Amino acid sequence: MHRFAPVVLEKQRRSVEHAMSAGLMQHSADELAMVINQARQIVYASPKLIEIFGEGPLGRRPGEMLKCVHAGTEDCGLTELCRYCGAAKAIVDAQRTLHEINGECVVQTKSNGLSVTYNFNIRTIPIEVESERYLVLLLEDMSEKKHQAALERIFFHDILNTASGLSAYLELLKRQVTTGPNRELVVRAGEITESLIDEIQSQKLLVSAENGTLNPSRQMIIAEELVHTVVAQYEQLDLTSKKIVRITPFSESFSLVSDETILRRVLGNMLKNALEASEPGDTIDVRFGKENGRAIFEVHNPGAIPGEVQPKIFSRFFSTKGPGRGLGTYSIRLLTENYLEGHASFSSGKDEGTTFSVSIPIRDIS
Known about the structure:
9 helices, alpha+beta, single chain, 12 strands
């Protein structure tokens, strides 16, 4: 593919920059952006792009600007490996269809002898300036996010394997130690390990929800069985010591279709939050039923949330229990509203205590 002469490129650069000043294309100061002509040569690069990848972009092609290790072997965009490049494909598709194209690309670079790999989300937007067609390329560097996601997957996989292995060995030990003073210690160690596994699973679910990689499924759920399972799980914890958990259905037995794992986590966080906010001797009420085609789940404790705290109760990392907490109530709303198509709320007052409530639609399996 031919390249335009420097005098033509300079004219195109002035035209594009004039159009940008007139508001045809805008981008934030920290955005990686470039504009390429029909020959895929750069006629504009954003200051942030130049800061990271160097000056002198005019007339170069995107792979050359980004220092792609394959760009120098032949003409950028025409090598065999370019057939598999998400950026090249997005550019070709946008030029062919004259529609905005979104894609992903991995760019392997080498700078000062060091190899660096970038993972970009790329948007290619066709524009026309003075009867000439150009493409705006907007690059979002996802390298850190993808690296973090990979580390998280490895971490959760390894730590769950370790905790599950510990649980299995404790179960074998429990079968052998059937009597004597060590029996209680072995049983207690097993309960703590199961609680650890549950906490890891909770954090794994929350990370997936925040990353947008959580995919809800649909199962038939018997509401009463689900509530009793959640309560039984938390009755084994020290949190319930000298506290009473009471289950109170307010409608006839019913079933619903939803993601059981996510809903169980939501109810568990509601109950755990109420237990942590209660004093010895308090009664925590777990209520459930159906109203107007929706399943309602409520957890009530007699304590009250101070008025100045209430507006922040669903905020990430906010907690009345000190720093490093605050994911419990945050995850209740995140999971309910983003993944169960429901609604989470609470009410609190000195006389009536505190009630957290979630409602989700009841559906049939279709």
